[in-house]
Automatic annotation (TrEMBL):
Protein name as catalogued: Golgi apyrase
GO MF entries: ATP binding; GDP phosphatase activity; ribonucleoside triphosphate phosphatase activity; UDP phosphatase activity
Active site: E145 (proton acceptor)
Protein source organism: Cudoniella acicularis
Biological process annotations from GO: CTP metabolic process; UDP catabolic process
Biased composition (Acidic residues): 595-609
GO (cellular component) term, any one: Golgi apparatus
Assigned protein family: Belongs to the GDA1/CD39 NTPase family.
C-alpha cells in the first residue's frame, strides 16, 4: 500500500452523472509528517481537474430499462476512474454512486431495480471496494446531500480547521450552504446557540475526526425542497400559465422579448398548428411577480417558523450565518452575467439591473450576441433562453423565500441579528465571506461539491481514534449516545504501514505527475534523471507505473504540432510545487480573493486521456536508456552511499541502500532466464568476487532487452 488513499464517487444527478476521484494521505503517513496545527485538522483531500468526468443524461433515464445502464452509461465512468487510481490500490479504493433528485422522482420499484443493476454491474466489471450495495449505491435524501455540501464548503473555507480565523460572533465560525439543482434545492447551516437549543430535535449531530484521532462535533440543520430546483420550478410555472389563461398563444414575461417556444421550451419560428405556444415579452418585473406564488409561502406551517412550502426551518441569524451558494446559484449569476467577476460580493441591485436589461433585449439581437460570443464562448442559445426565468427564480428563493437581506435596499430588515451597517461596511472592505450570500463555484481552485463533503467524512473515518471512548465518524439524530439512525462514514480505520519502497516510489510518481503542466526544459531534465533512477532501483511493477506516468507527462506536456511554451512563473509557489494545493483559505480581504470567480467550466466534459496512456504503458516494456558508467567496485566511493556525494535533493536519496551490486548492474526480481541475453552481454549474472579484467571498463551500457 502506498502513501495515498483513494476514493471514487459518482454524483448521479437529474440531468447527468459526474464521477469524481479523490485522494488523501494514508493516516500513518500523514501523522508522520504532520505539523502541530495539521494534527488538529481534518485530512487533506485532493483532486485534480482531470480526475473528473461528466456525461448526460441522468441515470433516471434508464428507469424503464435498467439492464442497459451499465454498458451505455456506467462503463466510461468506471474506465476513467481505473485510469486514475493505481492498479495495486483499486481493491482498497471505495466506489460510491449516490443518486439525488432525479432518481428520487422515480417510483420505488424502479428505484430499487435501477440501483440493484448499477451495483451488480460495478461489482462485475471492476475490483473497487463495494462490500455493501445499500451503503455504496443509494438514493441519498436531500437532507444528506445538503449536509455533505455543508461539510465541503466549511472544509474549503477553513471553518473547521481554523475557527479562530472565522469568528463571526456569538461563538459561531461556520458558514451556511445553499444548493439548487434541476429538481430540488437544499439549505444547511448551524443555527446560533439560542436557536440550536430551541430546535435541538431538528438538528443533525455530525461527528468527524482530526488527524490526531480526536473527535469534533457539530450540530447542523439541513432540509430540502423537492420540486424547487430550476427545471421543476419552470414546469410548475408553465402549468400555472396554462391554468390562468389557456390559449393558443400565451404571453410569457420570463422569456426574452420576441422569443417563441413550445411549452417544453423548444423554439419555434412561426405560430402554427394546434399546440400552445409561449411568446416572450421580456418584462422581468412581471416575471418576478409571477414566480413569487411558486414559493408557496402561504402553505400551512405545522412547526413554526417555516420558509417555503410549509417546511420548518429554525430562524436564521444573518449576523452570524453567512451563506455560500453553489450549482444553479453560481451558474445563474455567472454563465451570462459577468458582474461578479469584478465585484466579489453578490449585489442585488446590480444583478437585477443586468437581468432586466438582458431580458428586455429583442431575441434576434440576443442570438446575434451569442453568435459573436458577446457573453463568452460558453453561452449558448439555450442558456440565453432560460436565464430570465432562472434569474427570477433565484432572486425569489433567495430574498422572498430564504430571507437573504437585499443589502443597501431594504429598510427595517427584521431578520434576527441582522446588522445593516455592519454588512454594508463589510462590502466596503471587500470581505466577501462576511456577506449574507455569495455564489461560488470553486474555492482556492477546488470545486465546492457535496461529493467532496462525503469523501472528507470518509477520510476522517479512516483515522484511528485516540481513545476507546471516541464515538464513530458519521451523522444522525441529535441525541445523547449513538442514535439508531446514525450513519457511519463506512471507512476502514486500520492504519496501513508505509514501507521505504512505497514512500520513495510514490514520491517519484508524484513528481512525474506534476510534470504534466510543466514545460521548463531544466525541470523536465531533472524529472528524467529521477525517473531513470527510479527505473534502476524499483521493482518491475514500479517501473511500469513510472513509465505510464512519463508517457502521460509527455502526452500532456506537448501535443504533436503544438508550439513550445515559455515559462509561466516557474518560481512562483504554485508553479514550483505543482498545481493547486487546495489549502483552506482564511477570512480576510486577501483570502476573499481566493474565491474563483472566473469562467464557468461546469458544463465541460473533462475527459482524461490517461486511460489511453495507461493502456499503452501496459502493452509495452521499458528499455533502460544508455548511460555512461563509472567504476562501482566495492572498494570505490559510491555516489549513492549514505552520507557520500552531493547533498540530498529532498527525496531521501541519501538514505537509499546501495542499489548497485558487485556486478555493477541492478538486478531485482526479474528472472535470469528473462534477462539472460542482456545479462550475458554485460557479465551481470556472475556472482564471483574475483574481479574480471573486463568488468565495468566499457564506457557504455547497452540497453536491457524490452520484455
Amino acid at each position: 500500500m502506498g502513501k495515498w488513499r483513494w476514493g471514487v464517487i459518482l454524483d448521479a444527478g437529474s440531468s447527468g452523472t459526474r464521477v469524481h476521484v479523490y485522494r488523501w494521505l494514508n493516516s500513518a503517513k500523514a501523522q508522520q509528517d504532520a505539523k502541530p496545527h495539521d494534527l488538529k485538522s481534518l485530512p487533506k483531500v485532493e483532486t485534480k481537474k482531470r480526475y473528473t468526468k461528466k456525461n448526460s443524461p441522468g441515470v433516471s433515464h434508464w428507469g424503464d430499462n435498467p439492464a442497459d445502464i451499465g454498458p451505455e452509461h456506467l462503463q466510461p465512468f468506471l474506465d476513467h476512474a481505473l485510469s486514475i487510481v493505481p492498479t495495486d490500490q483499486v481493491k482498497d479504493t471505495p466506489i460510491f454512486l449516490m443518486a439525488t433528485a432525479g432518481v428520487r422522482l422515480l417510483e420505488p420499484i424502479k428505484q430499487k431495480a435501477l440501483l440493484s443493476e448499477i451495483c451488480a454491474y460495478a461489482q462485475a466489471h471492476t475490483n473497487f471496494s463495494l462490500p455493501d450495495c445499500g451503503v455504496h449505491i443509494q438514493v441519498i435524501p436531500g437532507e444528506t446531500e445538503g449536509l455533505y455540501g455543508w461539510i465541503a464548503a466549511n472544509y474549503l473555507l477553513g471553518g473547521f480547521d481554523s475557527p479562530e480565523q472565522h469568528a463571526h460572533g456569538k461563538g459561531h465560525h461556520t458558514y451556511g450552504f445553499l444548493d439548487m439543482g434541476g429538481a430540488s434545492a437544499q439549505i444547511a447551516f448551524a443555527p446560533n446557540s439560542t436557536e440550536a437549543e430551541k430546535h435541538a430535535n431538528d438538528l443533525k449531530l455530525l461527528r468527524m475526526r482530526t488527524l490526531n484521532g480526536e473527535s469534533t462535533e457539530y450540530k447542523v440543520f439541513t432540509t430540502t425542497w423537492l420540486g424547487f430546483g430550476v427545471n421543476q420550478a419552470r414546469e410548475r410555472y408553465v402549468d400555472a400559465l396554462l391554468e390562468a389563461s389557456p390559449a393558443h398563444e400565451m404571453l410569457d414575461p420570463c422569456l426574452p422579448s420576441g422569443l417563441k417556444t413550445t411549452l417544453k421550451g423548444e423554439p419555434v419560428d412561426t405560430v402554427s398548428g394546434k399546440d400552445a405556444v409561449l411568446v416572450g415579452t421580456g418584462l422581468f418585473k412581471e416575471c418576478l411577480k409571477q414566480t413569487y406564488p411558486l414559493l408557496d409561502k402561504d402553505a400551512p406551517c405545522a412547526d413554526q417558523p417555516c420558509l417555503l412550502h410549509g417546511q420548518h426551518v429554525p430562524a436564521i441569524d444573518f449576523g452570524v450565518n453567512h451563506f455560500v451558494g453553489v450549482s444553479e446559484y453560481w451558474h445563474t449569476t455567472h454563465e451570462v452575467f459577468e458582474m461578479s467577476h469584478k465585484d466579489k460580493a453578490y449585489n442585488f441591485v446590480a444583478y437585477q439591473k443586468l437581468v432586466q436589461d438582458f431580458c428586455a433585449t429583442e431575441w434576434d439581437d440576443i442570438q446575434s450576441g451569442v453568435a459573436k460570443e458577446k457573453w463568452g464562448p460558453k453561452v449558448t442559445p439555450k442558456i440565453a433562453q432560460e436565464i430570465c426565468f432562472k434569474a427570477s427564480w433565484l432572486i425569489s428563493v433567495l430574498h422572498d423565500g430564504i430571507g437573504i437581506p437585499r443589502v443597501g435596499i431594504e429598510k427595517g430588515v427584521d431578520a434576527p441579528g441582522y446588522n445593516k451597517t455592519k454588512e454594508v461596511a463589510a462590502h466596503g472592505k471587500d470581505k466577501t465571506f462576511l456577506d449574507p450570500f455569495q455564489a461560488v463555484n470553486k474555492i482556492d481552485g477546488m470545486e465546492v461539491s457535496w461529493t467532496l463533503g462525503k469523501m472528507v467524512l470518509y477520510a476522517a473515518g479512516q483515522i484511528p481514534p485516540s481513545s476507546h471512548e471516541a464515538g464513530p465518524v458519521g451523522f444522525g439524530s441529535n441525541v445523547v449516545g449513538i442514535p439508531a439512525d446514525f450513519q457511519e462514514a463506512g471507512s476502514n480505520s486500520n492504519p496501513v504501514p508505509i514501507g521505504d519502497d512505497d514512500s520513495w516510489s510514490e514520491a517519484a510518481e508524484d513528481l512525474a505527475e506534476k510534470a504534466h503542466s510543466r514545460s521548463t526544459p531544466g525541470f523536465l531534465l531533472f524529472m528524467l534523471i529521477l525517473i531513470f533512477i527510479g527505473y534502476i532501483f524499483r521493482k518491475r511493477e514500479r517501473r511500469m507505473r513510472f513509465y505510464r506516468g512519463v508517457s502521460n507527462t509527455f502526452r500532456r506536456a506537448r501535443r504533436p504540432g503544438s508550439p513550445r511554451k515559455g515559462g509561466r512563473g516557474f518560481f512562483s509557489a504554485g508553479k514550483l510545487f505543482g498545481g493547486p494545493s487546495y489549502e483552506r483559505v482564511l477570512e480576510d480581504g486577501e483570502a476573499a480573493g481566493e474565491f474563483e470567480l472566473g469562467d464557468v467550466d461546469s458544463d465541460e466534459n473533462e475527459n482524461s486521456d490517461s486511460s489511453e496512456s495507461s493502456r499503452l504503458g501496459r502493452a509495452s516494456g521499458l528499455a533502460t536508456p544508455r548511460m555512461n558508467v563509472m567504476n562501482f567496485d566495492t572498494g570505490s566511493s559510491n555516489y549513492f552511499d549514505s552520507g557520500q556525494g552531493p547533498p540530498s535533493i529532498g527525496l531521501g536519496l541519501n538514505g537509499i541502500p546501495n542499489a548497485m551490486d558487485r556486478s555493477g548492474l541492478v538486478v531485482r526480481t526479474e528472472s535470469r532466464e528473462r534477462l539472460a541475453p542482456s545479462l550475458q552481454m554485460l557479465g551481470a549474472g556472475r556472482r564471483s568476487r574475483t574481479g574480471s579484467p573486463t568488468r565495468m571498463k566499457s564506457p557504455l551500457m547497452t540497453p536491457l532487452e524490452e520484455v
